[in-house]
Design a protein that fits this description.
It is a single chain. The protein is an alpha+beta fold and 114 residues long. Helices cover 59% and strands 18% of the residues. It folds into two domains: 44 residues; 65 residues, Alpha-Beta Plaits (2-Layer Sandwich). The protein has a four-stranded antiparallel β-sheet, covered by helices on one side. Strand 2 and strand 3 form a beta hairpin.
Length: 114
């Protein structure tokens, strides 16, 4: 009879230790998620799709062509030495940007989400 109580006691201790370890693991995971969200809030405003980077003349041609094919999507041209970049508007989530990328990927295979 004492043997059964002893086994039951050991089982309770083992269960207690595993649940404590899992809760510590979850709290560290929650901490990492919080840190990642804080970092993203400070450093990143969203996601853009880059259609082209290269010389200015080709960038202007790409802008005209893109506006004819996809007038509902806003795009802009920026200059970072030594190239011009043609990018879309900012999307809040990666999912939104990926959806737009899927719709334009056939005509612009080199496009990518930034």
């Amino acid at each position: 009879m004492n043997y059964k109580y002893f086994l039951l006691f050991l089982l309770c201790i083992a269960f207690s230790l595993t649940s404590q370890a899992q809760s510590e693991e979850l709290s560290s995971l929650d901490s990492l998620i919080y840190k990642k969200r804080s970092f993203n809030a400070v450093t990143k405003n969203g996601f853009r799709i880059q259609l082209y980077n290269g010389d200015e003349e080709t960038a202007l041609e790409k802008i005209e062509q893109f506006r004819e094919e996809f007038p509902e999507i806003n795009i802009m041209r920026t200059y970072k030495v030594p190239e011009w970049k043609v990018q879309t508007e900012v999307y809040k989530t990666r999912l939104e940007a990926d959806r737009v990328l899927n719709s334009i990927k056939d005509k612009y295979p080199g496009a990518r989400v930034l």
